[in-house]
Specification:
The protein is mainly beta. The chain is built from 2 helices and 12 strands. A 12-stranded antiparallel β-barrel has the order 1-2-3-4-5-6-7-8-9-10-11-12. Strand 7 and strand 8 form a beta hairpin. The protein is globular.
């Protein structure tokens, strides 16, 4: 089945489920709010099903090979975030983009989350619709204070993702540090992430065949 055919079919199936605000996937492993380089909550370029918590605004900044700029996400209500980014692009006009995402926890599959969203709502650079699933993998006797755990993510999208599959993962070495890797449908990207308390996260590594650095500060209003 074509990924583009699978997207609306999956969305239709999810619409018949009962949304929940808390799931096993978001409650049993570290859940870091990190803005991607394009804005949505996620890994590096790849969005995850996670959204900013209600009333939380994530202010971010990213510096990559081909573009750089600030990002922001606001948890409008539980499981819904809206935001944007300003992309200062090398060799192209700078553009502002708007993003939105809804997180769904299917009532009959409460061990993972599903995110449905759009990057670049107004098609300033490359309007992208996507659906992504996220799941937590934890060992026995899991403890948030000494959390060796993992999260895996996989989805499909148009636009930036070229109507292809994307995937990624996070390996949490403890409650503050993690190894991040992803396939964004074009490149393999990887980073080392450090989180200070729950309000600040920073990561650095390789993205889009070059070095990158990004950070996110999360504030509750």
């Amino acid at each position: 089945m074509s990924p583009l055919i699978a997207v609306p079919a999956l969305i239709a199936a999810l619409a018949a489920t009962e949304p929940q605000t808390v799931s096993r996937a978001t409650s049993v492993a570290p859940n870091v709010h990190m803005n991607t380089l394009y804005g949505p909550t996620g890994l590096i370029n790849v969005p995850t099903a996670n959204t900013a918590e209600r009333g939380v605004v994530g202010f971010g900044a990213g510096f990559a090979k081909d573009f750089r700029g600030p990002t922001a996400n606001w948890g409008v209500v539980d499981s819904i975030e809206v935001g944007g980014a300003f992309l200062d692009r090398t060799g192209a006009d700078s553009k502002a983009i708007a993003n939105a995402k809804v997180k769904i926890v299917p009532s009959n599959f409460n061990w993972f989350d599903v995110g449905v969203g759009v990057i670049d709502v107004a098609d300033a650079i490359n309007q992208t619709f996507y659906v992504v699933g996220s799941a937590a993998i934890v060992p026995p006797n899991f403890s948030p204070d000494n959390a060796f755990a993992a999260r895996i993510h996989a989805g499909v999208g148009t636009g930036l993702f070229s109507e292809k599959l994307f995937a990624g993962g996070e390996i949490f070495l403890n409650n503050k540090t993690a190894l991040v890797g992803e396939w964004d449908s074009k490149n393999f990207n990887a980073a080392f992430r450090f989180r200070h308390m729950e309000m600040f996260a920073i990561q650095a590594g390789v993205a889009n065949k070059g070095l990158f650095l990004s950070s996110t500060v999360s504030l509750k209003f």
